Amino acid sequence: MSGSSLETPALGIGRLLKESGSYLVPHHQRDYSWTEDEIEQLFEDICEAKKGGQVDYFIGLMVFMSQNAREYTILDGQQRIATTVIILSAIRSWLRARPYERDANQIQTEYIEARELGKDEGIPRLVLNENNRRYFQKFVVLESPLASIENELTTLKRYDPNRLLLQAIILCRKKIEELAGNYSDENDAAENLFDFVRYLRDNVKIVRFTVSNEADAYTIFETLNDRGLDLSVLDLVKNYLFGKAIDDTYLRDIQKQWAQMMGTITNVAADDFLKAWWTSRYGRVQKPQLYSKFKNEINNWSKIYKTSADMLKASEYYTALEIADDPIWAELTSISRDRIRSLKLLGSKQVHPVLLSARAKFNSRELERLLRFLEVLIVRYQLIGGGRTGRLEISCASLAHQIWEGKVNTASQAFVVMKDIYPSDDDFRSSFMFKQERNNQKARWILSKLEDQARQERLTDSPPHELEPSGSLTLEHILPKEPGENWNEVLKSDFSLVEDMLFRLGNMCLLSQINRKIGNKSFIDKKKVYSKSDLFLTQEVASYASWDRQAMDDRQKKLSKHAVALWRFQ
Description:
Layout: E1 5-12, H1 13-19, E2 22-24, H2 36-51, E3 57-68, E4 71-76, H3 78-96, H4 101-112, E5 113-114, E6 123-124, E7 126-127, H5 133-141, H6 146-155, H7 163-180, H8 186-202, E8 204-211, H9 214-226, H10 233-243, H11 248-264, H12 270-282, H13 287-297, H14 301-320, H15 334-346, H16 352-361, H17 364-384, H18 389-404, H19 411-417, H20 425-432, H21 440-458, E9 473-477, H22 488-491, H23 497-501, E10 508-512, H24 523-531, H25 536-541, H26 549-566
Parallel strand pairs: 2-4, 2-7, 3-8
Antiparallel strand pairs: 1-8, 3-4, 5-6, 9-10
């Protein structure tokens, strides 16, 4: 790394902005991603260090690539630099709204936007990636009222790449207002903000590496990771892939694919995606071994190029596992899309590698059957049976790899591979009869599915009455969580009834929202409501003379029969 240098042992981050030119976040780098927690923590740490008279407060290493004497590409550190500029812009805005225009302009020209002689427009000292660039310029570099930023935020979709950026700008504005609000005199508040800027300039320090090319940077990242730097596995893989590019043209291709992939997986855990992708292609792996296995397997340029393209495509499939209405599933039936929703609710990440492989290898009919099998398996083995996650992960990893290798081509073959962990009807029935469920969403889902099954069993000659949307149904504990005096008779002979039976599925039923206020009433009063319900399984509760332990056991035994018939793969 002859062209690389450690320019200064330590440098104030304000001086970095003030004296070193302009900084660019390359398009393949991730979007602004700091949450309120990280920003709050930075504020608190700086304020405490400043208040305690701490001369140096270090915020870590930053790595840059020099374009020329005044322009640098940020390879590591963009979140910290961007947040610092946002904080400085918030101080500028506070000053500009008061009689401190000259000081506001000084902050603007020294830390936010440089001005060249003879030029009308300034040059931003920090330019973010393509997704964030326009919003950063409009709401940070340029002056903008807080109300305008808040209004703009309301127009953004939940997963817009600029949502976190706007939230950060708003939070920093409010934090500066709070900081100034500690002083009754406006001049004292301004002096405190001036001190805060000086502290950012001289005392909030970074260590700066400047390299001449990206390959050197990736070598630095890998070396630092060996020494304990907390980089994510995906960051290490990115550095490895970029560092192996044989020329600038191929590097730009990989960077473009990587930027598209990172945009796709913005709202999922990136390392989880990488692990699921690797498992589906190469077999089970633990995260600590993932990077070393990746380097050993993807060891030449041909593999690197193919892997980059494959990861991009797989990222679209992986993200779609969280969104049943994603266009990727358009060719599937509504029943299959409902199963995708169910798998998400059940929260079984272990099946993700299986679905990544199957989406690429199975035709739509077999994929639909596989979704059915996976739902049945997760319900039998994990949700009801409480089977070990590790064993499920091992089996799913094996199945995913066999599907990718073309050794398993149908859902029936998948069933054979997983048969060792597929509970028998008798085992499933036994587990169901004593199942407790404390998660309301899952309990409501189980009862909704059982209601559908009961309707199919009873109404064989005519279409079943349409079940209300599950979102409009509430979960009812027949024996309530806090039973009143009207439950004393049943409780006096069974003191542990609430503790033992409250979360048993046999003690739960579904009700429409208009009946949700019956919670603590007596069983006699509740029966009147249950008897009028359109839901078969809720109506059945009204047939019991009293609601005690035996009644709950009996009802759960009946529910178990529906469950065995419903969650069976044939």
